[in-house]
Amino acid sequence: MVIKAAGSALGHKTELGAVVLNVRSAAEAAAAAQRLSSISATVLVEEMVSDGVAEILVGVTVDPQFGQLLTLGAGGVLTELLRDSVSLLPPFSAGTIRGALARLRVARLLRGYRGRPPGDVEALTQTALACTRYAADNLERVLELDLNPVIVRPAGRGAVAVDALIRLSEEP
Q1: What is the Cα–Cα distance from 40 to 4, expressed in whole angstroms?
Q2: pLDDT for 66 beyond 70
Q3: 67 and 142 together in one domain
């Protein structure tokens, strides 16, 4: 399992020591929860995804003038380090998203790299499309939606968003 401190002020959990990986027993879970309680009163317990081939950022921002902007890029701790991203304007389609993913430097991981299996690009593509649909359905309120990271599992096994941030406008 993974245990994380949760809260709106916790943007970079790994840097804050707010994530405990590979929790295997009740005793380890209790110790992790105790330690994380000093960071936040709320903790999340999640299944550990251990077969990921890549971590990808999927983000949607809504600009008052231009509308939605979909950003895809290297995710997790590599987001700021690699600065490997591409942004798309609507209309969004599976084909344009797959094409954008192919332009990333981390696309090599998605295709299978150094004996690792290729990633489930179709599941990642559908995840990105779902984000754009959510933003479109809530255009008046959504300011930003970030899934980071989305762990892309081997082809046919899916993609799992393990952290999410949604910022909404205060105005109705």
Answers
A1: 9
A2: yes
A3: yes
Residues 127, 70 share a domain? yes
Helices marked H in the chain: 26-36, 78-82, 94-102, 107-111, 121-137
Compute the half-sphere exposure of residue 96: CA atoms within 13 Å on the CB side of its CA: 13
User: Integer distance in angstroms from the first to the last C-alpha of the chain?
Assistant: 38
- Kindly report whether the global pTM for this prediction surpasses the value 0.85: yes
Point out which residues pair with 129 in neighbouring strands: none
Domain match, 89 and 141 both:
yes
Provide the number of structural domains found in the chain.
2
Integer Cα distance of 90 and 132 in angstroms: 9
User: Cα 46 to the chain's mean position, in Å?
Assistant: 14
Cis ω before 90 (30° cut-off from 0) = no
What tokens were used for 161? 């968003």
Regarding predicted confidence, which is higher, 8 or 154? 154
Instruction: Please check the confidence at residue 172 and state whether its pLDDT lies above 70.
Output: no
**If you search the block for the tokens 């933003």, which residue do you land on?**
135
- What are the CA-CA distances from residue 123 to residues 64, 86, 157 (Å)? 30, 18, 8
Domain hosting residue 61, numbered range: 54-168
